Structure formats: structure tokens, C-alpha cells
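ok here's Receptor-like serine/threonine-protein kinase:
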Amino acid sequence: MAALILSFLFAFLLSDLPPSSAQPLILSSFNLSDSPWRPDQNQTLLSANNVFAAGFRPAPSSQKLYTFSVWYQNISERTIVWSANDKSLVNGSAALVITASGQLRLNDFSGQNLWPWNASGNPNSTELILDNNGNLNYANWQSFKFPTDTILPNQNMSLIVSKNGKYRFTNSTDLVYDSTDSYWTAPNGNVLQVLNSDGEMVQGNGGSFISADFGANRLRRLTLENDGNLIIYSFDPDLGKWVIVWEAIQQACIVYGTCGPNAICISDGSDSTTTACSCPPGFRPSAGGAKEGCEIKIPIKDARKTKFLQLDYVNYTSGPNNTIQINAQNLTICRHSCYNNSKCLGFGFKYDGQGYCALQLERLLYGYWSPGTETAMFLRVDSNENDTSNFTGMTSLLETICPVNISLPLPPEESSTTTRNIVIICTLFAAELISGVVFFWGFVKKYIKYRDMAQTLGLEFLPAGGPKRFTYAELKTATNDFSNLIGKGGFGDVYRGDLTDHRVVAVKCLKHVTGGDAEFWAEVTIIARMHHLNLVRLWGFCAEKGKRILVYEHVPNGSLDKYLFQPGQPRFTEDYELETGPVSANGMNPILDWNIRYRIALGVARAIAYLHEECLEWVLHCDIKPENILLGDDFCPKISDFGLAKLRKKEDMVSMSRMRGTRGYMAPEWVRSDPITAKADVYSFGMVLLEIVTGTRNFEMQGSLKNSEEWYFPGWAFDKVFKEIKVEDILDSRIKHSYDSRAHFQLVDRMVKTAMWCLQDRPDARPSMGKVAKMLEGTVEIIEPRKPTIFFLSDE
Ligand SMILES: *[C@@H]1O[C@H](CO)[C@@H](O)[C@H](O)[C@H]1NC(C)=O
Ligand SMILES: *[C@@H]1O[C@H](CO)[C@@H](O)[C@H](O)[C@H]1NC(C)=O
Ligand SMILES: *[C@@H]1O[C@H](CO)[C@@H](O)[C@H](O)[C@H]1NC(C)=O
Ligand SMILES: *[C@@H]1O[C@H](CO)[C@@H](O)[C@H](O)[C@H]1NC(C)=O
Ligand SMILES: *[C@@H]1O[C@H](CO)[C@@H](O)[C@H](O)[C@H]1NC(C)=O
Ligand SMILES: *[C@@H]1O[C@H](CO)[C@@H](O)[C@H](O)[C@H]1NC(C)=O
Ligand SMILES: *[C@@H]1O[C@H](CO)[C@@H](O)[C@H](O)[C@H]1NC(C)=O
Ligand SMILES: *[C@@H]1O[C@H](CO)[C@@H](O)[C@H](O)[C@H]1NC(C)=O
Ligand SMILES: *[C@@H]1O[C@H](CO)[C@@H](O)[C@H](O)[C@H]1NC(C)=O
Ligand SMILES: *[C@@H]1O[C@H](CO)[C@@H](O)[C@H](O)[C@H]1NC(C)=O
Ligand SMILES: *[C@@H]1O[C@H](CO)[C@@H](O)[C@H](O)[C@H]1NC(C)=O
Ligand SMILES: *[C@@H]1O[C@H](CO)[C@@H](O)[C@H](O)[C@H]1NC(C)=O
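and the structure:
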């Protein structure tokens, strides 16, 4: 009973008394006369500022086992930042003692000392004290010199080890797994020295990087987590929890050891920490499951009787001693090198024409799947193996790239895809040639430009780590305090910016964005992973102080609508101009010829197909219209704003669709509140395609017809082309004269027929976007379309 009253009293004292008062349970220092300190004493040592506390803490695994730790005292999440005995827990018989000779010991039940290092001082004057910055001191000994998995602000960097012991941050530069294998190196290889109180990580050689909440007066810590990621957390007092303000690795699968040997780590991209382990074709999970590793189904006995299975976007490593990197002119050479080496278990190859070929010998470790690798892995299996690879997508990506990449080495097998590729390339090449020799030289010049662009921009600036996180201050400087407005859009205003590395960027400040920081980050990472020559590249983002900003490559020539529709025509309601492009001398944009129009259509179709089929289902664009198709050099089209629909509030999307209703580019199912699928994008694309041919806004047709209740642009176009057989009536009047039925009939015919299929009222009657691209290419036959009709017109 007395004990009960006492403990109530203690609880009362604990909560109400200032920490400095020398109450039995709260110590401001621990000295010889306080010794011994036993786990069941409920005693804590507080720092003078009341932020940190030290003492025995029950281990998560058992209430009867303890660690002697330091944790945060003044916030709700009492996260442990240091422990004396993480690896060897003690029970209630343990004690922290100061011996008569002045040694500080953590004695377990048997009297064995678990305190890290020999901490000794004069017993008459030395005390154990917890500093305001969380450093535990006794004589010359300090906990800051013996960190566990966490480094606090102003603590010098030294070896830290994740709680589970799997991962280490060594030499102040490298994250390593298994003691030797480094999977991350500090920016520029410069050692990390100290995280200062502003949230800046100061590096050796003068470098530094800053956390997203730089400058704010927050509690922060740098922790090496059990999943191998190095993270700076900041305590958000409003949310009452720790938030991530910097992380070394944004794709969890890059961390070594996430999956066992031979297995492939797959992150579904929905958040950066969830991973799954899967076995490659020809392999099965080992006894402990794929997470423990995979074993080959048919062991290779004779290296001559083997073949290779292609795994797109998969990268393995065998460690530096077991990887041979050679420069192979083409896939055949790379494959032969591996085939002829009996130790070679597979090889990685890039289709970018640079000859990257990495042979993996003896072991296959740390496999992961990520489109960012831009690599295909070829795994050696027995020639009797009949598994087929389900890691695909690369070949179709190659196909969907702008025609300028035609000198890429072709995919290996003389498969139908290769033939199809050749057909496409020949068609495009023929189209180029027809339009003139001058154009051809321009084409060659542009090709070099594109190649350089792909090399420098694509590979250098977007490493597998994901998009760069910019600070608001950086973007403010880059955009000259947001002074150069180049567009206003449904998602927000766009400013021109110049980064310190001389890249010109388009900086889009988003409006009405949902979700927290981490959610935003995760989604932006997915968007940034979408690589396609016909998609505007996302370089980075900023999420700070409630601001949500995206940093895109700058596409100089402005949007398609500027070229397609004559000036002076009334503009689309609630419209936006994404870019203001160069204009010719008479103040008008040049008029696009048929070949360019065809190429724009094809590029856009391929990019949407890529979004729908290679990426995740949610990347429905939902807002395809000429304003969102930007034109780069050589009029290579680039779709902007993809993936953003997910970031918008649902109500916004719905009201947006209601507002646009029957007009414009929204598929009928938006108005009918039917489920929205990828086919809604197909409809919008069909409308754009028709506009590319006619040079007219679908709802701004001139003439009296427009006023009729029944009038529907696609239906009207259908009648003209397929009933009256007067194709010329729908062609853009500005370039009608240059329409040469021999040269252009095929292109225009395909565009019109494809558009008609895309504009079918019923979603299931519309082809998939992949099919649409093939229809435009001319690699599939297009059967005569049915007349597009629409049944909701009367309710307008
Ligand atoms: C310490 O606290 C625990 C639970 O909070 C309680 O069961 C125990 O009796 C306390 N011990 C002492 C010595 O006050
Ligand atoms: C904890 O203490 C620090 C330093 O005095 C202060 O900045 C922070 O606001 C405090 N947090 C809470 C939740 O009281
Ligand atoms: C601690 O463990 C030892 C050895 O297992 C045991 O003898 C001792 O009784 C335990 N002490 C308590 C308080 O459980
Ligand atoms: C610890 O250090 C003190 C003084 O530095 C020394 O006298 C003592 O022998 C050392 N003890 C051990 C176990 O190393
Ligand atoms: C500590 O104090 C005691 C008595 O006051 C004295 O005998 C002893 O020598 C002192 N120890 C040291 C190391 O100064
Ligand atoms: C230990 O600390 C207490 C309170 O702070 C003090 O009264 C006492 O003199 C100290 N003892 C030694 C040996 O320093
Ligand atoms: C750390 O440094 C040592 C000595 O310089 C070196 O041998 C070792 O390879 C380094 N470790 C890593 C992971 O870079
Ligand atoms: C690579 O080989 C060298 C020399 O044989 C050896 O010292 C080193 O430990 C090996 N490294 C690994 C990661 O196996
Ligand atoms: C690959 O390159 C080699 C050497 O240049 C050449 O002999 C071979 O024909 C090429 N193979 C293919 C498929 O292009
Ligand atoms: C594959 O992974 C290894 C080790 O992580 C890395 O060094 C290499 O650059 C990666 N290759 C590609 C093409 O991403
Ligand atoms: C694949 O081969 C295995 C035996 O190696 C056989 O049992 C299986 O039926 C084959 N599957 C197919 C689809 O051919
Ligand atoms: C391939 O199939 C395996 C087994 O069915 C599955 O675990 C894995 O996730 C698939 N991989 C891809 C990339 O779809």
C-alpha cells in the first residue's frame, strides 16, 4: 500500500516538478553517492534543458530486459538516440555503478562490465552528466564518441550501425552491407562531418547539403535505419511526430541485402519503403522464401548448353571482384563474352549505344528492378529451361522513343518487334526524305543534339536516386524571385528558371495539392521515373512550408495549340498557355507540315501508351489537350502534366470535368459518372488527333453547322471523310494546298481512321493506347471505323 502511494506521489512529482530540483527519481547528475543505479529504480538523468533523458529502458522485446539509453524527454515520441548495451540486454539484477576507483561500469547480473570503453575519473569529483545536446559525459568519456544508430546535431560523425546490425555507415562516406559492400557514397564522395543545428550537413572539402526544413528551430537526428537507409528526421511539433527531411536513398531496392542471392527486389513505387522479393525466370525461391534468395531450377552443368533470358530494367551486382565491365559494340558481342566465360552467370546491357556491358561472374547479388537502370539483364539458364521472362517493357520503350533515336542498336532477336521497328523507321525515314534533302540535314543535326541531350541530361542529372529535392530558397534564386512567368495552368503557374548548373528549367508551383510531404515525395519520385523522349522530364521538386513545386526541363517551342489554331480565334475557357514560344517575324508561329503533324501524333500516342502500359495504372493523364503537348527541338512533342491528376483533390477533378462537360476533350464517361479508365485518355487523344488534321478546335468550328443541336465535330468529320468522300473538306485549310495525295494519303488516312476509333462513345469500343500507336504506325490494319456518336449532347 505504501509503495502504491509512493509511486502515485512519484508520478505526481515527475509530471509537475521542474527537472532541476533534486528529487529522488530525477537526477541532474549521477555520482559516487548515487551509485548503484538499478533498472527497477525508475530513475532518470535529465539534461538541464529537459530535452534529453538517460536511464534504464525496458527493451521492446521484453519488459524484464533493459538497455541503458538516452532518449528524448520533452516530446511525445521518446525515441532512443543512444544505448550502452544494445546488443547485450541486461535484466533486473544489473546496475550502473561508479566504483571506489572511479570507474563507471554497467554490470550485468554476473558483474561483467558492458559499458562501452573504459570510463574512469576521480571518484570524489567525477559525475555522469547529460548535456543539453544529448551527449552523456563521464570524465573524458562521452557517448558522442560511441554512437549507436543515431547521430545528433553537433555530434561529430563516426561509425554508426543499424539496430539490426546489418548496415553500417563507415568512413563517414559509405553505407555498407555485409561489412564491405558499399551501396551509397556521400555526395561527391566528401565525408560527412557534422549535422549542424540549422539542419545543414557539413561535408569535408567544403561541401554540404541541407535538410528540407533547413533553418527551422527543430529537433533533428540522423539515423541509420534497419532497412539500410540513412535518414535525417525532424520533429514536427504540429504533427507531433518525426518527419523525414532528407534521406540518402529514395528507392528502397537500391539498398543491398534487401533480398537474398539471385532474388530481385521490386518496389511498387507506391511508397519508398515497401519492397517485395521475387525470383527471376528459371529460378525458384529457396527454402526460406524469395527474401532469403532464389535457386536455379536446372543447375548449369555444361556452359555450352545454355541460353539467356532477358530481364528488362533489372540490375545485379557481383561485387567488384566478380564483375567484368567491357565496352561491347553491340549485344551480340556482349552475349558472346558471357557465353564464352564459363563463370559468367549473366550480363547487363544498355541499349543506349554506349556499349555498357557488365559480365557477372560466380554470383548474382543485390538484384533489383527499376526503370531508372535503363539496363536489361540477361540471365544464363539451361537450354532446356522453358520459363519465359515476365520482366519486359524495354523493347516497347525503345519503340516509342522519337524517331531520332533510330541509330540505336536494335534488340537482339530477329523477332517480329525488330521487323516492326524497321518498318516504323523506314516509314519515318521515307517521310523525312520526301520532305526534302534540306530537312534531312536538319534531321542529322538534330539527331546529334538529341543524342547529347539523352546522354548528358538523361543520365547525368537523374541518377537512380530519383528527383532532386530543391529548397524553396534555391528555386527563388533560380527564378529570380518568381519573376519570369511563362505560363498559367490548371495545376498552377509556371516560371522560367536558371539553375546554377546552367540548366534552364520550367518551375511549376502547384495549387490545390493534397497529401503530406512523404506522400508527395513518393508520387513525385514515380513521375520522375517515367522516362520517355515524348514526356517532359521532371528534374526535381520542392516541398517546403506547404509549398509544392515541380521543376521540369524547359521545352522551348511552346505548346501545340499555338501552332495548330489560328490566332484570333476565341480561346478555350479556363485555358492556359504553358509556354510562350518563339514566333516568326510576322508574329505567327510556323505552320506545321503533314510530316511533322504525323510525327507529333505518333510521339504523343507512344508516350501515352508508355504511361498506360509500362507505368502504373494511375498514370492516366486525364487532361490530354493541345495545351499540354509541348514542342521541343525539331518539333518533337513532349507531354506535360502527366501524373499530376493523382496529386489533385478528387473534388477538383470532378468539378473540373463537370465544368468542361460535353465540350472539349473529356470523354463522355466523365459526364455520365461512369468509371474512368485509360480509355478516357484515348478519347481525348482522338480529339487532339482530329484537331491536328483539321487545324480547328473541336468546339470552335466555323459556320452555321455549329449551332445545330445535333452537331458533333467527330461525327461531322466522319461524314465528310467516309460518306461524302471529301477528305479535303476537313483538312487544315492553311496547308490544304500542300496535301499531296500520293505522299500524304497514307498518313492522313491513318490519322483520321485512328481518331474515329478513339472517339467511339463506348470506352470498350476504343482501342488501347498501345494499339492506337500501332494503328498510327501502320503496323496493324485499321478496319473501317464506325461513326462516332454521342448521346448526351441534348442535355447541354
Ligand atoms: C517503477 O515503475 C514501474 C512501472 O512504471 C512499477 O511497476 C515499479 O514498481 C516502479 N518501481 C519503483 C522502485 O518505483
Ligand atoms: C523541447 O525542447 C526544445 C529545446 O528547448 C524545444 O525547442 C522544443 O520546442 C521542445 N519540444 C517540446 C515538444 O516541448
Ligand atoms: C538475471 O539473470 C540471471 C541469470 O539468468 C538470474 O540468475 C537472475 O536471477 C536474473 N535477475 C532477475 C532480477 O531476473
Ligand atoms: C581504466 O582506466 C584507468 C585510468 O585511465 C586505469 O587505471 C584502469 O586500469 C583501466 N581499467 C581497465 C579495465 O582497463
Ligand atoms: C576521495 O576522498 C576520500 C575521502 O575523502 C579520500 O580518502 C580519497 O583518497 C579520495 N580519492 C581520490 C582519488 O582523490
Ligand atoms: C553527489 O551529488 C549530490 C547531489 O548533487 C551531492 O550532494 C554529493 O555531494 C555528490 N557526491 C559526490 C561524491 O560528489
Ligand atoms: C574505408 O577506409 C578504409 C581505409 O581508408 C578503406 O580500406 C575501406 O575500403 C573504406 N571503406 C569503404 C566502404 O569505402
Ligand atoms: C577482392 O580481391 C582482393 C584481392 O584478391 C581482396 O583483397 C578483396 O578482399 C576482394 N574484395 C571482395 C569484396 O571480395
Ligand atoms: C556486332 O559487332 C560486330 C563487330 O563490329 C559485327 O561483326 C557484328 O556483325 C555486329 N552484330 C550485329 C548483330 O550487329
Ligand atoms: C547496377 O548496380 C551496380 C551496383 O549497385 C551499380 O554500380 C551499377 O551502376 C548499376 N548499373 C546500372 C546500369 O544502373
Ligand atoms: C517446362 O518443362 C518442365 C520440365 O522441365 C515440364 O514439366 C513443363 O510441362 C514444361 N512447361 C511448358 C509450358 O512447356
Ligand atoms: C514475374 O512472375 C513472378 C512469379 O509469378 C512474380 O513473383 C513476379 O512479381 C513477376 N515479375 C514481374 C516483373 O511482374
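+1. The longest helix spans residues 437-461.
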